[in-house]
TrEMBL record:
Sorted UniProt keywords: Bacterial flagellum biogenesis, Cell projection, Chaperone, Cilium, Cytoplasm, Flagellum, Translation regulation
Example GO biological process: bacterial-type flagellum assembly
Localization (cell): Cytoplasm
Assigned protein family: Belongs to the FliW family.
Tree of life domain: Bacteria
Gene name, Swiss-Prot/TrEMBL: fliW
Cellular compartments per GO CC: cytoplasm
Name assigned to this protein: Flagellar assembly factor FliW
Organism of derivation: Acanthopleuribacter pedis
Function according to Swiss-Prot or TrEMBL: Acts as an anti-CsrA protein, binds CsrA and prevents it from repressing translation of its target genes, one of which is flagellin. Binds to flagellin and participates in the assembly of the flagellum.
Length: 142
């Protein structure tokens, strides 16, 4: 077990095999390559992408189907290489969410999802072709 500090969750213990490596990092978070996913009953269905080496990085994520059941992306060969070309059924996707003071105004970044391969433990944030409107999609429809 590995103990990692988290500002959001305090010190947590994780198994080494729950770490995802982002070889190219995540844009805007340079030099941070190792993350784990934290699930919390208190914030379910939100998942947290917690940096293993920087305690102040905890990113909230949702499965995109919760926002748009028809949402899908096509990964390029290069993106699949970054995931170590594992089987497609081992690839999962999340979108980052931002929660302002009023949680009803929560938005999701559907333009740049986080893609994880649960088998190879690799991750990548991809930027998809699409409307800039996908950058801040309201999670709760009026």
């Amino acid at each position: 077990m590995l103990k990692i500090p988290s500002i959001t969750f305090g010190d947590i213990e994780i198994a080494e095999n729950t770490i995802y490596t982002f070889d190219k990092g995540i844009p805007g978070l340079l030099g941070i390559h190792r993350y784990t996913i934290i699930e919390s009953e208190e914030t379910d269905p939100i998942r947290w992408l917690q940096a293993c080496d920087k305690p102040y990085i905890s990113l909230m994520m949702l499965e995109p189907a919760m926002i748009d059941p028809d949402y899908s992306i096509q990964l390029t060969d290069e993106q699949m290489k970054q995931l170590d070309n594992g089987p497609v059924e081992a690839v999962f996707m999340y979108v980052l969410v931002v929660v302002p003071d009023n949680a009803r105004d929560m938005t999701a970044n559907m333009l740049a999802p986080i893609v994880l391969n649960h088998q190879t433990r690799k991750g990548v944030q991809v930027v998809v072709e699409g409307s800039p409107d996908l950058l801040r999609v309201k999670v709760f429809k009026d």
